[in-house]
């Protein structure tokens, strides 16, 4: 399964950097290490540009908390930093012609000049039928060179190497699928990742590419909720809220999610949601039974470490779910299976 002793997933957010290292142990996957380092304000701006000096300092702190030989990294990119497009291309094109056609298609729709972008593309399901088809759908991704290159350069200076670049949404869906199979759940489950300022909603329906929406609502949006703080170990924690505060936050979250769920059902009527996985660092602010009742869905917390064996040197707090490590864990899984 693993091509290297360790697979590391690194999630670079606006407020912190989170890393998870997984190791192959015989027939199981073991949680080898995890770490979170808080970033100073404005290390990453709204255009996804990074302050390399501050990010490098955080990466070096992360590296010290990982196994010495854990250098190969699957790095996450925010969905809003990536242009995603499906295009139809002739099946008789050679590689050079494919690259030219993809560049032309992205160049005509991108707000950025083509020379400022990095591109990746691959044929979608049905490639085996290509000889019998005139055209074939290709998934194309594009992101600004500055967005990718600066992050890769910082990793390199910290002694690590980015071997996989993946969308954060895809990382969450990798983890959710792993957990769904482990629990043998039936039906379609979406993932909700609740941050301080934004909430990610994503689903992986069988009939199409991943459905994703970013909602401008997070733990700091609740007008009566107390803000989160960081403990001495750099882990995000939220102060306990009384039931009425948590219920109001849950109701506001349900109102935001209901619109996106209706949109998903309108575009994927054959694959209705059976439930939602919740992750992010705001467990104390959400009442899952209230959310389940308001949305009429099965609601479960996506504890990313629950389905792995734990290394001997690690100690997990029994009452803690570590849900803020969802993206990093999904990235580590993705890197292991590359």
What's a concise summary of this model?
With 338 residues, this protein is of the alpha/beta class. The chain has two domains: 6-79 and 149-336, 2-Layer Sandwich (Nucleotidyltransferase, domain 5); 82-146, Dna Ligase, domain 1, CATH 3.30.1490.300.
Essential attributes:
alpha/beta; Nucleotidyltransferase, domain 5; Dna Ligase, domain 1; six-stranded mixed beta sheet; five-stranded mixed beta sheet; 16 strands; Pilus assembly protein PilM
Word description of this protein:
- The chain is an alpha/beta fold and 338 residues long.
- The chain folds into two domains: 6-79 and 149-336, ATPase, nucleotide binding domain (Nucleotidyltransferase, domain 5); 82-146, Dna Ligase, domain 1 (2-Layer Sandwich), CATH 3.30.1490.
- The chain contains seven helices and 16 strands.
- The strands form four sheets. The protein has a six-stranded mixed beta sheet with strand order 8-4-1-2-3-16. The chain has a five-stranded mixed beta sheet with strand order 11-10-9-14-15, with helices on both faces.
- The longest helix has 25 residues, at 243-267.
């Amino acid at each position: 399964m693993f091509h290297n002793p360790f697979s590391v997933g690194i999630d670079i957010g606006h407020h912190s950097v989170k890393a998870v290292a997984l190791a192959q142990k015989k027939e199981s996957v073991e949680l080898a290490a995890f770490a979170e380092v808080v970033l100073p304000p404005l290390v990453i701006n709204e255009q996804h540009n990074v302050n390399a000096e501050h990010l490098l300092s955080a990466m070096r702190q992360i590296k010290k908390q990982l196994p010495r030989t854990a250098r190969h990294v699957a790095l996450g990119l925010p969905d809003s930093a990536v242009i995603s497009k499906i295009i139809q291309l002739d099946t008789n094109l050679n590689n050079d012609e494919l690259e030219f056609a993809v560049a032309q298609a992205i160049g005509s729709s991108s707000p950025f000049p083509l020379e400022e972008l990095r591109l990746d593309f691959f044929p979608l399901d049905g490639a085996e039928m290509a000889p019998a088809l005139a055209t074939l759908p290709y998934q194309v991704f594009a992101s600004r060179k500055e967005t990718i290159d600066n992050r890769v350069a910082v990793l390199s200076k910290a002694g690590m190497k980015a071997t996989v670049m993946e969308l954060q949404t895809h990382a969450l869906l990798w983890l959710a699928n792993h957990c769904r199979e482990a629990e043998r759940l039936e039906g379609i489950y979406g993932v909700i990742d609740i941050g301080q300022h934004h909430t990610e909603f994503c689903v992986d329906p069988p009939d199409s590419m991943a459905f994703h929406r970013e909602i401008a609502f997070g733990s700091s949006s609740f007008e009566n909720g107390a803000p989160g703080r960081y403990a001495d170990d750099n882990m995000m924690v939220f102060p306990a809220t009384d039931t009425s505060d948590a219920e109001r936050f849950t109701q506001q979250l349900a109102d935001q999610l209901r619109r996106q769920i209706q949109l998903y059902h309108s575009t994927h009527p054959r694959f209705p949601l059976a439930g939602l996985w919740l992750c992010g660092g705001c467990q104390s602010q959400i009442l899952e039974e209230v959310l389940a009742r308001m949305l009429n869905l099965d609601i479960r917390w996506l504890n990313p470490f629950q389905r792995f064996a734990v290394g001997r040197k690690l100690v997990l707090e029994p009452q803690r779910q570590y849900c803020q490590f969802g993206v990093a864990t999904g990235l580590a899984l993705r890197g292991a299976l590359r």
